[in-house]
Amino acid sequence: MDIHEFLDPIPHDILPLNHSNDQVLDIINFDGLDQIDHHSIVLIGLGEYGEYLDAEDIHFSQIRNHFYQLSKSNWSRKIFDLGTVLAGNTFEDSSFALHQVISALKNTGATIIVLGGTQALSYIIYEALQKDLMKVGTVDIKLDIEGDHHNLTANNLVTKMILNGENRILDYFNLGSQAPYVAKEELDILEQLNFENIRLGALTADLSIAEPYLRELDLLSVDMNAMQYGSFKSALKITPNGFDAREICGLMRYAGLNENLKVIHLSNFLPTLNLEDAFLLAEIIWYFVEAQNNQKYDGDLQTYHVQLEDDEIVFIKSNVSERWWLQMRMDGKKRNIPCNYSDYRAAMAGEYPDIWLKFYKKFY
Q1: Residue 67's CB: how many other CB atoms inside 10 A?
Q2: Do 262 and 113 contact (CB within 8 A), yes or no?
Q3: What is the DSSP letter of 34?
Q4: Which of 149, 239, 246, 258 is most buried per CB count within 10 Å?
C-alpha cells in the first residue's frame, strides 16, 4: 500500500542549517518506504487532537529540529522520518489515515514512534496492529476506563481495548497513576481482569521496577500529562506531581530495550511547545532510539532453584543482559515471566514473589 497520500513530508525549512557527521540528521531518511525493514525505526507525527485543539505546528518542528542535532552515537539501525499524518475533516478521517499508515508499516516489521495527537489514537494504533493476545502498557496519571465506551476518547481507550471483539489483551498495565485521579471502581475492574497498576510513588522510589513490565510489550502509550509541571509545562492537563525529566527518559530507555515493541505513542502535549519542553521530547525519543540500538540479546542463562514450602520456584538470569525471569509452567509448557532481582531476593527470604502470586491468580 502507498501511504504517501496520508503523510505530509518534512519541509526542508525545519532542518538544521548546519550539521556534522556525528549528528542524527546524518543518518535520517525522509523517504524510501521500500527500504524500511524489521531493523528500521520509523518516526511519524500526528496532527489530530480530538476535542482539545488543532495542531498549530503540525510537524513539531522544534522537537524534530533538536532531535536531528543530537548525537547519533554508535547507532546501526536505519531511521526514517516520514512526516505527519494530518488531521482530517473529522476525527474518523484522521483515524482512518492513521490506521492505514500503521497497518502498512506493521508489515515491514519496523519499530514505530508516533509523536503527538490525542491519546485516544492509541486505540486506533491498537486496532491497526491486528494481533491477538496483545501486551499493552500505558504511562498515565489515571486509568482510561470510562464507563461510556461508545465514542472513542482519551478517557476510555483502555475500555475499548478490553471490549474489542477482534483482538484480546493478554497483559495490560499502567505506570505512574496518582491516587487523586483514579476511582476505586477502576481499580476494581483492573483487579478483576488481573491487570496491573503501578503507582507513581512506587516508581519514583525505584524506577527499575518498571523494566520487567516494559520488557515484552507490543504497544506502549505515553500520556505526557503524567509529567510534573515543573519538568514539563506543555501537557494538555497540568499537575503538580508526576514524573520528572530523568525518570521519563529512564522509562523510555527501558522501553527501547524491548525487542518486541511494535509502537510507542507519545501523546497529549501542546503542539506548540516552549523550547525546554521540545528539547525534552527530543531527548525522550533519543533515549528510546539509543536503547533500540543497544539491545542485549539474552544468552548465557543461569538457573536458580528456590524451595518455598511445598513449591519450588525457578528463576532464570541472563549473564549477558543481567535480566531476570520467573519460570512458570502452563499447560505443561515452560513460560518465562519477566521479573526483577528483587523478586529473587524475596523468594530467598522465604516470601512468595508478587509476580508468582499474580501469575497463578491470572491462569489458575
Answers
A1: 26
A2: no
A3: G
A4: 258
* Residues shown for the chain: 364
Neighbours of 299 (CB within 10 A): 9
pLDDT(363) > 70: no
Neighbours of 173 (CB within 10 A): 18
Q: Is 78 helix (H, G, I), strand (E, B) or coil?
A: strand
Assign 181 a pLDDT band (cuts: 50, 70, 90). Answer: very high
Find cell 523468594 and name the residue.
Answer: 347
Beta strands 78-85 and 7-8 are antiparallel
DSSP per position, 24-41? GGGGEESS-GGG--TTEE
227 bridge partner residues? 243
**Coil, strand or helix at 128:** helix
> What whole-number distance in Å separates Cα of residue 303 and Cα of residue 301?
7
**8 A C-beta contact, residue 337 and residue 320:** no
pTM for this prediction: 0.94
For the stretch 298-325, pLDDT in tens is 888 999 999 988 889 999 999 998 999 9
Q: How far apart are the C-alpha atoms of 18 and 295, rounded to whole Å?
A: 31
- What does 258-318 look like in DSSP terms, one character per residue? -SS--EEEEESB-SS--HHHHHHHHHHHHHHHHHHTT-----SEEEEEEEETTEEEEEEEE
Which three three-digit cell numbers place residue 43? Answer: 518516526
